[in-house]
Amino acid sequence: MLRRACLLSPLLGTVLPALAQAPAPALQLRTVQQSGSLVKYDPDGSPSRPGLCLEILRAVEKVDPGLRFTGLDQQVPLKRVERLLADGLVDVFFCLLRSPERERQWRYVPVPLYVVRHVVVQRSDDTRRMETLTELAAASRTKPVLVMRGTALARRLTAANVVINEVGSEREALEMLTRGRADAIYGQDINLQRQVAETRLADKVRVGRNAFHEEPQYVALRADLPAAHEERLLQALKRLERDGQLRQLADKYR
């Protein structure tokens, strides 16, 4: 018996490490792209800038080669994304803000992907101060504040008694602002800064330096996604966070 154990010992020494390094089984998770948010998903962007959230998704696939995301040929508005998650018709979505209402309908992987700052954009010649929600609410009684349709930002303003006008995109909002149809846009710095640069409006509008609120974007999960799938995503995202890749990708789009 001792002789047999001695013979098996070298064999186990080679088999066990191989088993430990065996790749995780293939896993496909359903998702979609969000339309109207080019910082997140830019179907017409260059291969080097396809959108921050799509790049994070691809980075997850790279660190976990057995993990793949399907459904990226679909581009749907944010409201539709929320319905798909709530109804369990997609498994995951990159990237979404957290709110109590949303957390009652689905879950989140607890690794922040990047942080957005809520800022106000005004015309360059408008010298009024809009640095608090109280000041924004007062200004909105003359002209509603523009905010992206169906977002948590819109609900935040409504709760603060700010009169709002919801629009489909930052570009539409900037056009309305420069034409005088509105006096302020409330939105995410990373989105608004990109649109100001791309539309060459830096001499006509100014992005406020004051941050009304800061909050991270996360990966959202359907409520009944198996815990093993969530753990696999969690480990991939932790590796990207630890290696600094999440920060590098966010910096690329600022």
Give the averaged pLDDT, no decimals: 90
Tally of helical segments: 10
Tell me the structural class. Answer: alpha/beta
Q: How many structural domains does the protein architecture include?
A: 2
What distance separates the N and C termini? 67 Å
Whole-number radius of gyration? 23 Å
CATH third-level topology of the largest domain? D-Maltodextrin-Binding Protein, domain 2
CATH superfamily of the largest domain: Periplasmic binding protein-like II
- Indicate the low-confidence ranges by residue numbers: none
Query: H/E order of the elements?
Result: HEEHEEHEHEEHEHEHEHEEHH
Specify the biggest β-sheet. Answer: 6 strands, antiparallel
* CATH top level assignment of the largest domain: Alpha Beta
How many β-strand stretches? 12
Keywords: Signal
Protein name: Substrate-binding periplasmic protein
Signal peptide: 1-20
Domain Solute-binding protein family 3/N-terminal: 32-254
